[in-house]
Design a protein that fits this description.
The complex is a heterodimer of chains A (127) and B (339). Chain A has 127 residues and is mainly α. Chain A has helices at 13-30, 33-71, 77-90, 97-115. In chain A, 20% of the residues are buried. In chain B, strands 1-2-3-5-4 form a five-stranded antiparallel beta sheet. Chain B is globular and about 60 Å long. The chains are: A mainly alpha (127), B alpha+beta (339). Chains A and B meet through helix 2, helix 3 and helix 4 of A and helix 7 and helix 11 of B.
Chain lengths: 127, 339
């Protein structure tokens, strides 16, 4: 996790997320229908936020490095994504297809490992 | 006024207008009773009610349009109603179309159809003991329904020619994706693969476009009605096959490709033995990969509805993050790890 809110008192941001997530899960257990579903969705989103704090910065840095190498230029991650997507779609990376595919696959696996790590096949799980 | 009472006032106003719309068509004695709101759908608002007349009572469904956007992937309620009339006439299992809303009804755009009893919740259908027989029959019944649907002369639904998905379905999805100004490397790699592996053109047929677990009403003995015709268009028959087999619609029952219910061979065999064209498994695989692109873009649309404030909703917020899992399915399918 990066240096998020080190000047703040306890509970830290991760503890806050876990606390509210537990509340939503207990509401879901006592509710039905739309309220239960909304509470489960809220708990899911807080789990996503928690994992993003753990992995997000490292994933961004690593992807930025790979894209700079693949595209031969520097830029923000969003700019590099844009370049990558435009070049792939236009066929400009067809000659480097395995490398382009591998980068996209890695980017997707990074996203799923934040959104819902249990969804990944065994070959892509880090646990 | 609180949000809940505002919604109640809107509902009361809608019900009053609905009763006037019914009186206009069925006489002054017509009344509305037992109104319930079904879950808000992605593109339609659905209201269930009883039409009460001196001669008896009938359970009906009002569908009104909720998504109005230039990049909406859904055909108009008017065209949906026209489609219901065509497929009902051909004996496809659908709710009977009753009437279309008119401007003087002051109820926006939409239509009324018969209410078909049964269940649509995917997880209930896949797990509840009372649907054991229906589950067993789903793959073959779907093959029969597709054969009947795809045999309808496309000339009877010629108005679907203008739907962008009828012209070039891949270009239609790309254009919707671009409308959200997001960059998804996984989707663009998928798009490039789809472009480089396009199936050969075939004569186009009338396709449902959104036939899947969740859009079909099942009773204990099997399929009762096919719903949600808002994505209907003209295209390859194999497109409907790819969509119903999409991994997302198996709801965890990944070893049963046909909606989580059954195997491909029963499905394909029922289609061809009921007059359907030859099955092209390689093309169906292409449509499954295309289906992931389409489902990912639909999830982006839902997330955009939340983020833009048009339709604030926690489930729609989750849709934005769900896109990553759909992209994963797509790339794993391209790699040959998922079938």
């Amino acid at each position: 996790m990066g240096a998020v809110g080190l000047s703040q008192d306890k509970p830290d941001i991760k503890e806050i997320l876990v606390t509210v997530k537990e509340l939503l899960e207990s509401i879901a257990n006592k509710s039905k229908g739309g309220e239960r579903y909304d509470a489960l969705c809220g708990a899911f989103l807080l789990g996503v936020a928690d994992r993003e704090l753990d992995f997000g910065e490292r994933q961004d840095e690593s992807q930025n490095g790979e894209l700079q190498q693949l595209l031969g230029r520097e830029g923000s991650l969003r700019d590099l994504y844009q370049q990558f997507c435009q070049q792939v779609r236009g066929g400009d990376l067809d000659e480097q297809w395995p490398a382009a595919f591998d980068f996209a696959f890695k980017q997707v696996i990074d996203k799923v490992s934040v959104t819902n790590p249990h969804y990944l096949a065994a070959m892509h799980r880090s646990d | 006024m609180t949000e809940v009472s505002e919604q109640q006032a809107l509902l009361d106003d809608g019900v009053a207008k609905l009763e006037l719309a019914l009186k206009r068509r069925y006489g002054e004695a017509a009344r509305v009773e037992n109104v319930t709101i079904a879950t808000l759908g992605a593109s339609n608002r659905t209201l269930l009610f009883d039409l009460v007349e001196p001669g008896g009572r009938r359970r009906l469904v009002l569908r009104q349009e909720t998504v109005k956007s230039e990049v909406s992937p859904f055909i108009s309620p008017h065209d949906q109603f026209e489609i219901l009339k065509v497929v009902y006439r051909h004996g496809v299992l659908v709710p009977e179309p009753i009437f279309e809303l008119e401007p003087e009804d002051d109820l926006d755009v939409g239509y009324v159809m018969a209410c078909v009893e049964g269940e649509t919740l995917p997880k209930t259908l896949l797990n509840a003991p009372e649907f054991a027989v229906a589950r067993q029959r789903f793959a073959a019944q779907t093959g029969e329904i597709f054969a009947k649907l795809h045999a309808i002369d496309p000339g009877e639904v010629a108005f679907l020619e203008k739907v962008v998905d009828s012209v070039d379905p891949l270009a239609a999805q790309i254009s919707r994706y671009d409308a959200y100004c997001e960059y998804h490397p996984g989707l663009d790699v998928g798009i490039r693969w789809l472009e480089n592996n396009r199936p050969k053109d075939k004569p186009r047929v009338f396709v449902h476009g959104d036939y899947r677990n969740g859009n079909v009403i099942l009773g204990p003995d099997g399929i009762e009605a096919v719903l949600d015709w808002e994505c209907a268009h003209l295209g390859s028959a194999m497109e409907d096959f790819g969509w119903v087999c999409l991994r997302a619609w198996r709801f965890g029952h990944i070893d049963q490709p046909v909606g989580g219910f059954g195997p491909r061979d029963e499905f394909y065999q029922a289609y061809t033995s009921n007059g359907g064209q030859a099955i092209d498994e390689e093309e169906i695989r292409w449509w499954e990969i295309f289906g992931s692109l389409r489902w990912a873009v639909l999830n982006m649309m839902q997330a955009d509805g939340h983020i833009s404030g048009v339709r604030r909703s926690l489930p729609f917020a989750c849709c934005g993050r769900n896109t990553s899992m759909i992209e994963y399915d797509m790339l794993m399918t391209i790699k040959g790890h998922f079938t």
